[in-house]
Design goal:
alpha+beta; seven-stranded mixed β-sheet; five-stranded parallel β-sheet; 23% strand; globular; binds flavin-adenine dinucleotide; binds uridine-5'-diphosphate; UDP-GalPyranose_mutase_C; FAD
Length: 391
């Protein structure tokens, strides 16, 4: 092991960016361990035999306002511009999501829609955004009624499927990701940069990891190799003391063998279908808040505008995470509530006792990071580390 200075666990965005930074900027020899048979973490994509780029762990649409992240990633990929649009199946019609002034027009008689539009603009301003839980509490009776309608038709059943609970029982930040928008902008995201890596996320992350100082070992569960001695805060790798750094982007409860109990996650089952038809639906994603056991259907060929004769779609069925069940053992979404946060903090304190361990990513930070958050956070961690002269 003396040949490596840094061991990185996980080859998703977080692990790849930190591996690249240590290899390039600090000239460290880096070993990346990934338990899956591929790099790119949950952003892994591949092309089907019919030429459709499919996202294996659900649709991934890149968007960011973070200039540093955009510039950093642009070293490793060309981009294909793409602005995500989502339709919702509501009372048998397909209407734009997030709920905006066009959705209002589709669901209300003309005069009433105009009256509500004027009120929304007065209250929240042109181009304003308001989380559904806030709109529902509006003191204005018409806006409160609108909030109730949007809550009932768009949020309550979708959230119940996605999280197994009501919108009030999860962090308000979750439903605030999809606010009511006071404009006629039908885009799902409003960030400055919105684009897809032209050769896919797998190629982008392969490019990030493509450095002579980096070795990647796939199909390797690091928790079987890495040990943290809690008596003397020493690190061990493969039974031997390891004096380098460990960058860990997996689950903290797993790292500590569930000492303080399990950190709960929500999982998903993806049901892929390849159809002998050029197109299945009008938009990349159609949400089904009130029908079916799945939450949404995504048709991938729209993303890179691929002119294929066959089309691949995926239906997302939310489910509880269960580490012992191979059909449910991918931890997609941390579940935020106070008890879980407190448990996470216990693990965080344990890991902070180890000077040579850096944690990063959606799993290790137990946060609902988008891709740009994961990259931005990894860059921030590395920069802080460098500034502290801890190289
Ligand atoms: P991950 O991608 O989860 O990577 C962690 C890696 O560590 C994994 O490959 C895992 O196998 C590996 N690992 C864990 N434990 C071990 C171990 N013990 N040994 C070895 N390897 C280990 N973000 C967006 O910006 N836009 C979107 O449209 C979007 N859509 C999403 C849709 C879904 C369904 C989901 C679940 C997420 C979506 N995201 C989206 C979020 C995005 O997936 C994450 O921000 C990103 O993957 C975080 O990267 P990461 O490296 O932190 O984690
Ligand atoms: N949501 C909803 N109805 C929708 C879309 C979203 O209730 O039509 C809620 C739901 O709780 C979801 C959250 O808003 O988990 C965030 O949605 P987003 O599309 O950001 O979820 P992700 O793509 O991360 O799964």
């Amino acid at each position: 092991m003396s040949e490596y200075d840094v061991i990185v666990v996980g080859a998703g965005f977080s692990g790849a960016v930190l591996a690249e930074r240590f290899a390039k900027i600090h000239d460290k020899k880096v070993l990346v361990l990934e338990q899956r048979s591929h790099v790119a973490g949950n952003c892994y994509d591949y092309k089907t035999e019919h030429g459709v780029t499919v996202h294996h762990y659900g649709p991934h649409l890149f968007h960011t306002n973070n200039e540093e992240v955009w510039q950093y990633l642009s070293q490793f990929t060309k981009w294909t511009p793409y602005e995500h649009k989502v339709l919702g199946s509501i009372d048998g019609n397909l209407v734009p999501i997030p709920f905006n002034l066009n959705t209002l027009d589709a669901l209300y008689p003309k005069e009433q829609a105009q009256q509500i539009e004027a009120l929304l603009i007065e209250q929240y301003g042109v181009d304003g955004k308001v989380p559904i839980l806030e709109l529902r509490k509006s003191s204005h009776v018409l806006l409160q009624q609108l909030g109730e309608l949007v809550y009932q038709k768009f949020f309550v059943n979708y959230t119940s499927k996605q999280w197994g609970c009501s919108p009030e029982e999860i962090s308000p930040a979750v439903t605030a990701r999809v606010p009511v928008v006071i404009s006629r902008d039908d885009r799902y995201f409003h960030d400055k940069y919105q684009a897809i890596p032209s050769e896919g996320y797998t190629q982008l992350i392969t490019n990030i990891l493509n450095h002579s100082n980096i070795s990647v070992h796939l199909d390797t569960d690091a928790t079987k190799l890495v040990a943290l001695n809690m008596n003397d805060q020493r690190l061990f790798f493969n039974g031997q003391a390891f004096n380098g750094k460990l960058v860990f982007t997996g689950m903290l409860d797993e790292l500590f063998d569930y000492l303080d109990g399990e950190l709960p996650y929500r999982s998903l089952q993806f049901d892929f279908e390849t159809l002998a038809q050029a197109q299945y639906q009008a938009a990349t994603t159609v949400n089904y808040p009130n029908e079916h056991a799945y939450t949404r259907i995504t048709e991938f060929k729209h993303i890179l505008n691929q002119p294929t004769t066959h089309s691949t779609i995926v239906k997302e069925y939310p489910q509880d995470y269960d580490r012992f069940d191979p059909a449910k053992n991918v931890p997609y979404y941390p579940i935020f509530n106070q008890a879980n946060q407190e448990r996470f903090e216990q693990y965080k304190q344990r890991v902070q006792a180890f000077e040579n361990v850096i944690t990063a990513g959606r799993l290790a930070d137990y946060k609902y990071y988008n891709m740009d958050d994961a990259v931005g956070n990894a860059l921030k961690i590395f920069n802080r580390f460098t500034e502290q002269g801890a190289a």
